[in-house]
Description:
Blueprint: E1 2-6, E2 12-15, E3 20-23, E4 39-44, H1 49-52, H2 55-58, E5 59-67, E6 71-75, E7 78-86, E8 97-105, E9 108-112, H3 122-128, E10 133-137, H4 146-156, E11 160-164, H5 179-182, E12 188-190, E13 195-198, E14 208-211
Parallel strand pairs: 3-4, 4-5, 9-10, 10-11, 11-14, 12-14
Antiparallel strand pairs: 1-2, 1-13, 2-3, 6-7, 7-8, 8-9
Amino acid sequence: MVKVRWWGHACFEVKGSRVTVVLDPHGGSVGLPEPNVKGDIVLASHGHFDHATGIDDVAAPGAEKLVGFTGEKTVKGVRIKGIASYHDPKKGALRGENSIYVFEVDEVKFCHLGDLGHVPSSEQVEEIGEVHVLFIPVGGVYTINAKEATETVNLIKPRIVVPMHYKVPGLTVDVNGVDAFLKGKSNVKQIGGPEFEVNAESLPAETEIWVLSL
Protein backbone atom coordinates (compact mmCIF):
# COMPACT_ATOMS: atom_id res chain seq x y z
CA MET A 1 0.00 0.00 0.00
CA VAL A 2 1.09 3.54 -0.76
CA LYS A 3 0.30 6.16 1.86
CA VAL A 4 -0.70 9.60 0.59
CA ARG A 5 -0.83 12.54 2.99
CA TRP A 6 -1.81 16.11 2.26
CA TRP A 7 0.14 18.79 4.12
CA GLY A 8 -2.02 21.60 2.77
CA HIS A 9 -1.89 23.79 -0.32
CA ALA A 10 0.00 21.77 -3.00
CA CYS A 11 2.21 19.76 -0.62
CA PHE A 12 1.83 15.98 -0.54
CA GLU A 13 3.73 13.07 0.92
CA VAL A 14 3.68 9.84 -1.11
CA LYS A 15 5.17 7.02 0.95
CA GLY A 16 5.83 3.65 -0.64
CA SER A 17 7.50 0.50 0.63
CA ARG A 18 11.00 1.78 -0.07
CA VAL A 19 10.84 5.49 -0.88
CA THR A 20 9.04 8.67 0.18
CA VAL A 21 8.34 11.44 -2.32
CA VAL A 22 7.43 14.95 -1.11
CA LEU A 23 5.84 17.41 -3.53
CA ASP A 24 5.74 21.23 -3.45
CA PRO A 25 6.72 21.75 0.23
CA HIS A 26 5.45 25.14 1.39
CA GLY A 27 7.52 25.00 4.57
CA GLY A 28 4.84 26.70 6.66
CA SER A 29 5.11 29.83 4.51
CA VAL A 30 1.38 29.95 3.73
CA GLY A 31 -0.11 30.12 7.22
CA LEU A 32 -0.36 26.34 7.60
CA PRO A 33 1.80 24.10 9.82
CA GLU A 34 5.15 23.12 8.37
CA PRO A 35 5.10 19.61 6.82
CA ASN A 36 6.47 17.07 9.28
CA VAL A 37 8.00 14.60 6.84
CA LYS A 38 11.37 13.61 5.39
CA GLY A 39 11.46 12.72 1.71
CA ASP A 40 13.99 10.67 -0.22
CA ILE A 41 12.88 12.62 -3.29
CA VAL A 42 11.61 16.21 -3.13
CA LEU A 43 9.91 17.66 -6.19
CA ALA A 44 8.93 21.32 -6.57
CA SER A 45 6.92 22.30 -9.60
CA HIS A 46 8.52 25.76 -9.58
CA GLY A 47 10.44 28.02 -7.25
CA HIS A 48 7.69 30.22 -5.78
CA PHE A 49 7.68 30.52 -2.00
CA ASP A 50 4.42 28.63 -1.44
CA HIS A 51 5.76 25.57 -3.29
CA ALA A 52 9.47 25.48 -2.55
CA THR A 53 10.27 27.22 0.75
CA GLY A 54 10.40 23.93 2.66
CA ILE A 55 12.63 21.94 0.31
CA ASP A 56 15.61 21.67 2.64
CA ASP A 57 13.43 21.09 5.71
CA VAL A 58 11.64 18.07 4.24
CA ALA A 59 14.67 16.52 2.55
CA ALA A 60 16.12 13.43 4.20
CA PRO A 61 19.94 13.09 4.21
CA GLY A 62 21.04 12.32 0.66
CA ALA A 63 17.67 13.25 -0.83
CA GLU A 64 17.34 14.21 -4.47
CA LYS A 65 15.84 17.72 -4.80
CA LEU A 66 14.40 18.88 -8.10
CA VAL A 67 12.86 22.30 -8.80
CA GLY A 68 11.14 22.96 -12.11
CA PHE A 69 12.66 19.81 -13.58
CA THR A 70 11.79 18.81 -17.12
CA GLY A 71 12.85 15.61 -18.83
CA GLU A 72 13.15 12.09 -17.47
CA LYS A 73 15.39 10.51 -14.87
CA THR A 74 15.34 7.62 -12.41
CA VAL A 75 16.02 8.50 -8.78
CA LYS A 76 16.26 5.85 -6.06
CA GLY A 77 14.37 3.43 -8.28
CA VAL A 78 11.59 5.92 -9.10
CA ARG A 79 11.21 7.01 -12.73
CA ILE A 80 10.35 10.72 -12.77
CA LYS A 81 9.06 12.67 -15.75
CA GLY A 82 8.91 16.46 -15.64
CA ILE A 83 6.68 17.99 -18.30
CA ALA A 84 7.04 21.66 -19.22
CA SER A 85 3.93 23.80 -18.80
CA TYR A 86 3.00 27.32 -17.75
CA HIS A 87 1.86 29.00 -14.54
CA ASP A 88 -0.64 31.14 -16.46
CA PRO A 89 -2.70 31.14 -19.69
CA LYS A 90 -0.26 33.47 -21.46
CA LYS A 91 2.65 31.04 -21.89
CA GLY A 92 4.39 32.16 -18.72
CA ALA A 93 4.25 35.89 -19.38
CA LEU A 94 2.43 36.51 -16.09
CA ARG A 95 3.86 33.98 -13.64
CA GLY A 96 6.51 31.93 -15.41
CA GLU A 97 6.89 28.23 -16.03
CA ASN A 98 5.59 25.17 -14.19
CA SER A 99 6.61 21.53 -14.20
CA ILE A 100 4.05 18.74 -14.20
CA TYR A 101 5.46 15.66 -12.47
CA VAL A 102 4.59 12.09 -13.35
CA PHE A 103 6.06 9.24 -11.29
CA GLU A 104 5.25 5.74 -10.08
CA VAL A 105 5.53 4.33 -6.57
CA ASP A 106 4.78 0.64 -5.96
CA GLU A 107 2.92 0.36 -9.28
CA VAL A 108 0.66 3.35 -8.52
CA LYS A 109 1.01 6.09 -11.14
CA PHE A 110 0.88 9.64 -9.79
CA CYS A 111 0.63 13.00 -11.53
CA HIS A 112 1.08 16.33 -9.73
CA LEU A 113 0.09 19.32 -11.84
CA GLY A 114 1.79 21.95 -9.65
CA ASP A 115 0.58 25.48 -10.36
CA LEU A 116 -0.78 24.66 -13.79
CA GLY A 117 -2.27 27.84 -15.25
CA HIS A 118 -3.93 26.46 -18.40
CA VAL A 119 -5.78 23.41 -19.64
CA PRO A 120 -3.09 20.99 -20.88
CA SER A 121 -2.61 20.53 -24.60
CA SER A 122 -3.22 17.21 -26.32
CA GLU A 123 0.56 16.78 -26.53
CA GLN A 124 0.93 17.32 -22.78
CA VAL A 125 -1.93 14.91 -22.05
CA GLU A 126 -0.17 12.31 -24.20
CA GLU A 127 3.10 12.91 -22.34
CA ILE A 128 1.33 12.51 -19.00
CA GLY A 129 -0.11 9.16 -20.06
CA GLU A 130 -2.01 6.83 -17.75
CA VAL A 131 -2.67 8.28 -14.29
CA HIS A 132 -4.01 6.52 -11.22
CA VAL A 133 -3.87 9.47 -8.79
CA LEU A 134 -4.04 13.06 -10.00
CA PHE A 135 -3.22 16.03 -7.74
CA ILE A 136 -4.94 19.02 -9.35
CA PRO A 137 -5.21 22.72 -8.40
CA VAL A 138 -8.81 23.94 -8.36
CA GLY A 139 -8.75 27.30 -6.55
CA GLY A 140 -8.21 29.58 -9.51
CA VAL A 141 -6.58 33.03 -9.17
CA TYR A 142 -3.03 31.70 -9.70
CA THR A 143 -3.94 28.39 -11.37
CA ILE A 144 -6.69 26.80 -13.40
CA ASN A 145 -10.13 27.40 -11.95
CA ALA A 146 -12.93 24.95 -11.18
CA LYS A 147 -14.22 24.79 -14.77
CA GLU A 148 -10.75 24.38 -16.24
CA ALA A 149 -9.89 21.74 -13.62
CA THR A 150 -12.98 19.77 -14.60
CA GLU A 151 -11.94 19.95 -18.25
CA THR A 152 -8.42 18.82 -17.33
CA VAL A 153 -9.74 15.83 -15.38
CA ASN A 154 -11.85 14.83 -18.39
CA LEU A 155 -8.76 14.95 -20.60
CA ILE A 156 -6.42 13.00 -18.30
CA LYS A 157 -9.04 10.52 -17.06
CA PRO A 158 -7.37 9.46 -13.77
CA ARG A 159 -8.87 6.91 -11.40
CA ILE A 160 -8.58 9.18 -8.35
CA VAL A 161 -8.67 12.99 -8.39
CA VAL A 162 -7.29 14.81 -5.34
CA PRO A 163 -8.09 18.55 -5.35
CA MET A 164 -5.40 20.91 -4.01
CA HIS A 165 -4.39 24.58 -3.98
CA TYR A 166 -7.74 25.82 -2.66
CA LYS A 167 -8.80 27.87 0.35
CA VAL A 168 -8.70 26.16 3.75
CA PRO A 169 -8.75 27.66 7.25
CA GLY A 170 -5.45 29.40 7.99
CA LEU A 171 -4.22 29.57 4.40
CA THR A 172 -2.91 33.05 3.60
CA VAL A 173 -2.80 32.56 -0.19
CA ASP A 174 -5.76 34.25 -1.86
CA VAL A 175 -7.47 31.41 -3.73
CA ASN A 176 -11.03 30.13 -3.97
CA GLY A 177 -12.49 27.15 -2.15
CA VAL A 178 -13.11 23.63 -3.41
CA ASP A 179 -16.91 23.83 -3.61
CA ALA A 180 -17.12 25.24 -7.14
CA PHE A 181 -15.10 22.30 -8.42
CA LEU A 182 -17.28 19.77 -6.60
CA LYS A 183 -20.61 21.36 -7.58
CA GLY A 184 -22.85 19.04 -9.57
CA LYS A 185 -20.49 16.07 -9.34
CA SER A 186 -21.76 12.77 -7.93
CA ASN A 187 -18.45 10.92 -7.80
CA VAL A 188 -17.16 12.75 -4.70
CA LYS A 189 -15.75 10.92 -1.69
CA GLN A 190 -15.06 12.88 1.49
CA ILE A 191 -12.05 11.21 3.14
CA GLY A 192 -12.51 12.97 6.49
CA GLY A 193 -8.81 13.47 7.13
CA PRO A 194 -5.50 14.36 5.47
CA GLU A 195 -4.46 10.92 4.25
CA PHE A 196 -5.44 7.72 2.51
CA GLU A 197 -3.83 4.47 1.34
CA VAL A 198 -4.01 3.06 -2.15
CA ASN A 199 -2.59 0.23 -4.22
CA ALA A 200 -2.83 -0.71 -7.87
CA GLU A 201 -5.36 -3.47 -7.14
CA SER A 202 -7.79 -1.30 -5.16
CA LEU A 203 -8.24 1.58 -7.62
CA PRO A 204 -11.82 2.58 -8.46
CA ALA A 205 -13.05 1.44 -11.87
CA GLU A 206 -14.35 4.92 -12.72
CA THR A 207 -12.95 8.33 -11.83
CA GLU A 208 -13.61 9.40 -8.25
CA ILE A 209 -12.82 12.69 -6.51
CA TRP A 210 -11.27 12.17 -3.07
CA VAL A 211 -11.44 15.29 -0.93
CA LEU A 212 -8.95 15.47 1.92
CA SER A 213 -9.19 17.71 4.98
CA LEU A 214 -6.57 19.08 7.36
